[in-house]
Amino acid sequence: MRVGRILLFDWKAMGFNFYIPLLIMIFLYGYASLTGFTENNFVPSISLAVPPLAAWWSIYLMQHLLEEQGGEVLFSYPISIRILGLGRVLLFYLVFELALFILILGVCSYQIGYAFNFFVQLSIQSLFFASLGFMAMVYTKNTSWSLFIVATYASTQILTNGIVMPLINVYFFRDRILLMEEIWGKLFIITLLSIGVLLTAQHSLNRTEKFK
C-alpha cells in the first residue's frame, strides 16, 4: 500500500515531466520501425539515447524535496530518508525498466535470442544514469544544473567515443547487440560504480540539514 501511495504521489507531483522518458521511448520505437528494425540502425540510437533517460525521473523525484520551497514538509512524514531518497529512485528505476522491457521486446522482435542481452546492457547502463541524476540533484539541489551535468557527461562520452573519462564510460559504441560474454565484465564494473554513486548520494542526503 505504501509503495502504491508513493508512486501515485510522485506521479502526480511530476506532472507532464513524468511522461517525457516514455514519449522519447515511443519516438525511438517509431524510428526503429521506420528503419525496418535493422540492427545497425536501432542499436546505436537506442543504446545511446535510452540510458540517460533514467536520470530524468531521479532528478524530478528530488525536485519537490530539495529545490522547491516547502519540501521540508516531506520530512515530517513517517517515512525514512532512505525511502525518500534511495527508495524512491530505485522504485522509479523499476518502472523505467518496465518501459524499457516493452521497448526492447518490440524492437528486438526480429532479433530473437539477443533481446535479453540488449535489455541487460541497457538496464545496467540506465542504473548508472539514474544514480548520476540522483547524486547530481542531491549536491546541486537544482534540476537545471542536474540535467546539465547528466547531459554533459552523456554528450562528452558520445562525442569522444569514451576517450574522455574512460574509467567511468558506460557506453559500448557498437552497432550490433553484443553477446553476454562480451559485456559482462564491463557491466559488472558499471554496476559497482552505480552502487557507489547511489550510496554516496544517499549518504550526502542523510547529512543534509537545511532544505529549501
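That was protein one. Protein two is written in the same sequence-then-structure order:
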Amino acid sequence: MLQNIRDHSQGWIAKSIIGFIVAIMAGTGFYNIYEGSRSQPNAATVNGDKISQDELRQAIDMQRRQLAQQMGKDFDPAMLDENLLHESALKGLIDRRLLLQSADKAKFVFSDAALDQVILQTPEFQQDGKFNADRFDAVIRSLGYTRMQFRQMYAQEMLISQLRAGLANSGFVTDAEVLSFARLEKQTRDFASLTLKPDLKAAKVTDDEVKAYYDQHAKEFMTPEQVVIDYVQLKKADFFSQVSVKDEDLQEAYKKEISGLVEQRRASHILIAVNNKVSDAQAKSKIEETQARLAKGENFAALAKELSQDPGSSGNGGDLGFAGKGVYDPAFENALYALKPGEVSAPVKTSFGWHLIKLTAVEAPKVPTFDSLKEKLTHELKAAQVEQLFVEQTKKLEDSAYQASDLAQPAQDLKLKVLTSAPFGRDGGEGILANRAVIQAAFSPEVLESNANSSAIELDPETVIVLRDKEHRKPTQLTQDSVAANIRDQLIKDHAAAAVKARGEAVLADLRSGKLPAKQAVDGQTWQALEAVTRNQDGVDPNVLQSVFRMPRPASADKPEFTGISQRDGSYVLARLNGVNDGAAPTEQEKTSYRSFLSSRSGQQDFAAYRKQLQVGADIKRN
C-alpha cells in the first residue's frame, strides 16, 4: 500500500498540483487558544508523553458518535456506560501513542508531499473525480477537525499504517498449513434445520414481575443528560456591508487580472521513466528508438499508448491538455514553447525521465471586459477586507468572552444577538448542535462545571461562535408507569424465548437419544434440508451456518449429529448434520490465494502481539 502511495505521488502531472493542496492546507482554522492554557490534569502519560483531557474528551465523543451512527434510531445515550466509554477511549489513545512512539523510534517518516497526494486522491474529498476544497472542508468539519488538526491526524495514521504494514506483511505459513486450511475451506456439509417460534400470546407477565425488573434495572430508566446553550456568532458574510471598494482599486485589480492571462498550449508527450529498474542511459536509448519510429511515420498517439510510462496521459495518447507557463518542469516547458503546432521535440530530460513532446494546439488568451469582471473583482477586494476584519473581530470576541462572566458583554461589544439552542445531549442535535466541537465544548468541565464561556469555535471557514451553558438537565429517574409498557413487552419476549428454548432442548435430547425419529416434524414444523452448503452460503442464517460447521462429522449416514441454536429473535433452531463432503484438492491459484490470506492473518496476529509487548514494556500512568 505504501509503495502504491509513493508511486502515485511521483506521477507526472500530480506534482504540478501539489502546490494547490499545500495552499488549501495553509488556511488554518481558529484554535481554542485559551483552552490549552487553562490548568487541568492530564488524562495519562505514556513513556513521558502526555495525553490531555481534551484529547480524551474528543475520543470519547468520537466513540459516542460512532455508536449513534451504528445503532441509528435505536440509539439511546442513557444506555451507555460512561465509565466503560471512558476506559475504552483512553485505552485507544494509549495504544495509539505507543504505536506513534514506536514508529518514531523506527525512523518511519511520511513526507508532506506524500500526505498531500493521499489527500488529493481520497475519493471522499473529490467531486467529479477531482479534489474539491469545499467538499474537503465539509467532510473534516463534520468530523470536528480544523484543516491543520486533520492533517496532523492523517499523517499520524500514515505512520501507524507503515508500522502495521511492516509487521503484518512479514507473516508466513507452511505448505502443510495451506493444505489444511484448503481442506477445511473447500469442505461442504449436508444438513437440515427446523425452527421453533416463540409464542408471545402464551407468555404471561405479572405486575410484580414488571416492578421487580424496574427496581433491578433502575439505572437504565433515566432521562438523557442534556444542556441548553446560549451562544453568539460571527458570520463573515455580515461584514461585506461594512466595507467598500474604490474605483481606482477596481481598475488596478482589473489590470492585474488581465496581465495574468497567457497563451495556453496543448501538449502530448511520451515518457520513458528513470527509476531503480531503468537507468538514465537505458531510458534515453528507448526514447531515441521511439523518435526513430516517429521519423518513419508511426502515429504519436499510438506510440504514447504503447510506450509512455505516464499513467495519467498514456491512455489518452499522451495528451496533457491545455496549460500555461509555470505548470511543467522547466526543461519540459522550454522545449514545449520552442515548438510550432504539430512539431515534435528532440528527446528532453526532466527529473521524471526522458520525453518526446508534441505541440498539438495553441490558444491565445481571451481578454474579458472590465464590466464583465467588475462584480467578481468587487467581491474579491471586499473579501480581502472582510477576511482581515473577520480575524480582528474573532480575536475581539474571544478576548471579550474570556474576560466576561456571561455573553451579554461580548454581544454588546460586537453588536451581536445572544441566541439560545434547543436542549441536546452528548449525541448532539440539528444544525450547529450536530457539530462535534460544539458538543465537546458544551459538555466540557470548563463550560459545564465551571460555568465559563467557551473559546471561539470555528463551525466552518465563514462562521465562529462562543457559547456557554444556560441550563444543565441532569439525568433523572423515569417513573415505573412511564416505562411499564416497554418492560412488559420485553419480559413477554424473554419468557416466550425461554419457553421455546426449553422446548427445543427437550426435543434435542430426544433426537440425540433416538427417542424421536430424526426426520419427524416437531410441533407442526418440518425439516428443511440443504445439501453441499459452503461456509459462506448465501441465503442461510449465519448463526446456523456457523453452528453447523462446528459440529463433529457424523459417525455414519444413518447416525446424524444434532445441535440447537438460540436466535436473537427468540426462536430456537434445531440442526441435523447428515454428512460432510471433502472438497477437491486446491489448484495452484487457490493455494496462492489461501497463502496470502493466511500470511495476512498471521501478520495481523503478530501486530497484535507487538502491541501487547509495547503495553507491557511501557511506563503508563493514568490520572
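The chain has 20 helices and 17 strands. Keep this in mind for the problem set.
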